[in-house]
Amino acid sequence: MIVAPAAPAIAVGNVSKSFGGIAAVDGVSFTVSGGEVVALVGENGAGKSTIKNIIGGTLRPDSGGVSFGAGHSAVATVHQETSLFPDLTVAENILIDRLRAPGSATVRRATLRRTAAPVLQRVGAGFGPEAVVRDLSAGQRQLVEIAKALAAGPRAIVFDEPTASLNLVERELVMGIVEQLRADGVAVLYISHYLEEVARLSQRVVVMRDGRVVADRPTGELDRAALESLMVGRELARGYPEPAPPRETPALSVRDLGDGSRVAGVSFDVAEGEIFGLAGLMGSGRTEVARAVFGLAGAIGRVEVCGRALRRGSVRASIEAGMAFVTEDRRHEGLFLDRPIRESLSIVGLGAVCRSRRLGWLDRGRERRLTEELAGRVRLVARGGLGAGGGSLSGGNQQKVVLAKWLVDRPRLIILDEPTRGIDVGAKAEIYRLLVDLAGAGTAILLISSEMEEVLGLSHRVGVMHDGRLAGVLGSGATQQAVIRLATGGAA
Fold this sequence. Notes:
32% helix; six-stranded mixed β-sheet; alpha/beta
């Protein structure tokens, strides 16, 4: 008796999709079978998100289609940009499709908590099912997004940059989950810019460039250099650019900083031209420090920029002092998703594009010239032009807008919270070079990143947060082991 092979859990067949006459994907085909992890990689704008959304049913292809051997209802998606309800609890978000028992009009919250708790434990969450999503960090929300997908017991699952907001410990947990899903026979489509994760987890790699599949190969046949070359169409320089030595003059001085809640007693200095990395585990207080320095939270302690004390809790005072802030939550805090890209690019420099500051009249010619210059500096790819909505950009290009808007004038200090989250290798290299150039021109940089190699590779010194306090500062030659020791409460 001959048994026919099982149909792939996900089969993408000759799919094409255009927006405004511009092809986002063109004739894309590949499959994912049960018990297989297929990595989907490519630069931002290559078409990965479009394919993900077509598989998930939020977009219709213009031609071609997707079939599901597992049944469409058994396919779940973990989105990079979380699709959670901020004012509901974690349990309510995880079980949003079954809040009420069959035949009941009552939400049984105790039952929700009991059901959600083991799923949260599975993803290594350090918070309970009763926590409100609005109070969680971006990384914690990503864990909720993963738990939500796992709670449905899918036979096929699409992961879109699931570890982008997580540190090393949480990443290991998520990769362990993916490996267990594969062992359980689940089909996994894994979208990631972390090529070390691709090498470890996947059996096959599908590479996209300019909306097309340029390679579909066993993972073992492609080393990192070959993958990068396929993704960007050229060979990339290896390693991190070397920053120039910092100057002796302090640009930022922080003393006994606190936000009145999560962090307290934080003190450090950043010199002109210095890249000061801030590392730590999720929930350690890195983002809270950044927001308190910029004036978005807290009124405890003293912050000076170039010797000038700032009024605490005042974002206006921070900007006027020459401070810039690149948020980790680009979609909600960094740009206007429903407005033209040019408005997000020019928002910080409105004074430079107004005919009259008093009346607030815009000079469209000045705005066009300014925004085109800023877009060029970060090599922004906006296929619909700068008049298209910010939401039309890929995640990496959205991040470029969030960074570019602060470059109207060279800032004295720029705070970057997860600046390369969800960005491809080519765009990362461009941003690294931009940061090193800014530092070389005298800008002080406070860099927060969950990518340990990134922090160590770019920073002159690294401060390590633990439980809301600065556990120590490491100089040149800092190692991952030294950072992790401090981040977990050990001695320097």
